[in-house]
Specification:
The protein is globular and about 75 Å long. Helix 4 (104-117) packs across helix 5. The chain has helices at residues 34-41, 64-71, 89-99, 104-117, 133-145, 163-180, 191-197, 215-220, 225-230; strands spanning 3-5, 8-11, 23-27, 53-54, 57-58, 74-77, 151-155, 183-188, 200-205, 208-213, 235-245, 248-253, 256-261, 268-274, 279-283, 290-299, 304-310, 313-319, 331-336. A six-stranded mixed beta sheet has the order 6-7-8-3-9-10, sandwiched between helices. A five-stranded antiparallel beta sheet has the order 15-19-16-17-18, with no helix packed on it. The longest helix is centred in the middle third of the chain and has 18 residues, at 163-180. With 340 residues, the chain is α+β, with helices and mostly antiparallel strands. The protein starts with a strand and ends with a strand. 34% of the residues are buried.
Amino acid sequence: VTLYYGGDDVVKEVNLEIKRGETKVILGPSGVGKSTILKAILGLLRPKQGEIYVHGREISKLPESELVKIRLRMAMVFQHSALFDSMTVGENVSYGLKLSGHKKNEVTERMMAGLELVGLKGYDKRLPSELSGGQQQRVAVARALVLEPQVLLFDEPLSNLDAKLRRQVREEIREIQQKLGLTVVYVTHDQEEALAVSDRIIVMRNAEIAQSGSPRELYETPSDAFVADFIGEANLIDCTIEKVQGDMARVRIGDLKLELPAREQLSGDAVIAVRPSRIVLSEAGAVDTLPAIIAKSTYVGSHMEYQLSTEFGDLFAVSGRVSQPWAAGDSVGLSFMGSG
């Protein structure tokens, strides 16, 4: 599918499949076409070329009267909870059901069940202003769930919450999705959020798919430097692949040699992506280490964060050793976890 605004391609030849009962996250920086894909799935944006199927039915060329019926089987949760301030929580959750013509008793039963599902049983008489940001967003999720959608769409649903609430609400969303077996398309720019809620992730770059795979595949075997750096932080270090034998490669970084999975690489100059947690710091001059200097040392509670100066560039590392941290200016030995 190719989608565009004002003559400019916003999504270029994207081909993807969301299986029934899975959560697929569309991840990427701002402006790469993530939300545009959701609008196309809802039929709010017609593709310049290509086709869109929902449960086997091609929707991109349907008349608006037919698209309305398709949308009734979908629900969307936005970045803002978009609750009606003058309505109670129960009235907000019931709003779509009433518009759909459900009987009063059924509306009440489904509203109560929806609130219980998101952990807000007994909150139906409260106003949105009496709730926290996280609770308001859960009301928005309940409002979507009571419609019993076949497809549930999330557009940056947690970006307005603080870090602790984001973690709590994303866990609740994932639990509900798995419990009900919902088909979910989830848009976010937050890498940690994407890893936490997804079955599969699509990483977008410049309106195209950079890589698609499971969270573990994208984190451990990124296809290029962009994906490596975007899915969790990564240090990109120039290296030399000295020899490839079978599935293993001998890699040299400075005077340090590593034995690593070859992953179809060939001998010669290359770039290696090293996660901050895979950098091991030792006393200066330790055997099989490279020299480094602590440029900056930051205590963040559960671990230390270090900016390192080395002969092959500046690196970022984390360490669980918080009782005896290194200080800025200290010389250390640097190696990589799993190196041999």
